[in-house]
Write a structure and sequence with these properties.
Layout (H helix, E strand, L loop, with lengths): L1 E3 L8 H11 L12 E6 L5 H17 L2 E6 L4 H14 L3 E4 L8 H9 L4 E4 L10 E5 L1 H16 L3 E6 L5 H14 L5 E5 L7 H14 L3 E6 L2 H10 L6 E6 L2 H8 L4 E6 L2 H16 L7 E4 L2 E4 H19 L6
Parallel strand pairs: 1-3, 2-3, 2-4, 4-5, 5-6, 6-12, 7-8, 7-9, 9-10, 10-11
Antiparallel strand pairs: 11-13
Helix pairs in contact: 1-3, 2-10, 3-4, 5-6, 7-8
Length: 325
């Protein structure tokens, strides 16, 4: 069972907590005896986090856990209120995808003091005790993004990273990108402006950079919202954009042959499912791995066309099978 509780940026902590008291029973476990897990994600506006939530829900249903799902919507103060409410409710475990990897530490420490186990998914926290962190191998993802950019733009040119430095997973992606690009001295990373992971902000950043840096050849966008925002700002310029997440809209733009040439592909549903599996291990008295890495890959036009052709072939084969009586 999943409870979806909307974000309440205007109300104070007292009213928010009272709302939770109405929605849930106090003390460990629910009226039904199910373990209750408080979840606060970075945002519910991105496909990635909707898929991650779907993975959480599928695995929670399998184990008979009850989820209380909320979203910080990239507001650290709102997420802090949500976490405090979970602590007040004495949930059995907390899952957080931090809006601010440093700022969330105080809330995690408060959960530690209340003996509530904390798990992080996708984005790590810089502080407090976390039982297990489940995420893509983002350093490797950044390296793959750099290798793919070199493949499409060659060994020379100016590039930028459209950043979101408050988020640990993004820091790891940028680290991997910079490490790999250091192997290519003809390529210069000239700037790392932040767009806060938002499409509209990324479009503004890209518009400014096209004016100030007319020789720009490459853009590493730290998620697909920023990749698609940057893409909107490009009007025929010969620029290579490499995105991150491989959501459907990004895939469609890659297939169309736009400036968005490729995407690092994550498996958000797997992240969600593995997070619940780690919690289940903890509830059973076992020790889950401190870090659970989830593999990443790259999709480009060639691989997506091959994937689509295989799907069509499989569907055609299935439709040609004789009906069974």
């Amino acid at each position: 069972m999943t409870r979806l509780i909307p974000s309440l940026p205007i109300l104070g902590l007292l009213a928010f907590t009272l709302g939770l008291l109405t929605a849930c029973t106090s003390g460990g476990g629910s009226d039904s005896g199910k373990k209750r897990i408080g979840v606060t994600v970075l945002t519910q506006q991105d496909d990635f986090y909707r898929d991650l939530q779907a993975g959480l829900e599928a695995a929670a249903e399998k184990h008979g856990f009850e989820l209380i799902v909320q979203s910080g919507e990239k507001r650290p103060d709102e997420q802090a209120r949500q976490l405090q409410a979970f602590i007040t409710q004495k949930v059995d475990a907390i899952v957080v995808c931090p809006c601010d990897s440093d700022g969330v530490a105080q809330s995690i420490k408060a959960a530690n003091a209340a003996n509530i186990p904390v798990f992080t998914a996708d984005i790590a926290a810089h502080g407090g005790v976390v039982v297990s962190h489940i995420a893509s191998d983002n350093v490797q993802g950044g390296r793959l993004a750099a290798k793919t950019m070199v493949k499409f733009m060659g060994e020379s040119g100016e590039v930028i990273v459209i950043d979101h430095p408050e988020v640990a997973s993004v820091q790891e992606r940028v680290q991997g990108f910079e490490e790999e690009m250091a192997k290519h001295p003809g390529i210069t990373i000239i700037d790392k402006p932040s767009a806060l992971g938002k499409r509209d902000e990324a479009m503004k950043v890209m518009q400014n950079k096209l004016k100030s840096n007319p020789n720009l050849k490459g853009v590493f966008a730290i998620n697909d919202s920023t990749a698609l925002g940057a893409l909107r700002a490009i009007n025929g310029q010969d620029i290579v954009i490499i995105g991150y997440d491989a959501i459907d809209e990004a895939r469609q733009n890659i297939l169309k042959g736009t400036a968005l040439k490729a995407d690092v592909m994550q498996s958000p549903k797997d992240i969600g499912m593995k997070t619940i599996e780690a919690i289940a291990q903890h509830f059973d008295g076992k020790t889950p791995p401190k870090i659970v890495p989830v593999e990443v890959g790259v999709v480009d036009k060639e691989s997506l066309e091959k994937e689509n052709a295989e799907k069509k072939s499989a569907a055609k084969g299935a439709s040609s099978q004789p009906a069974k009586n």
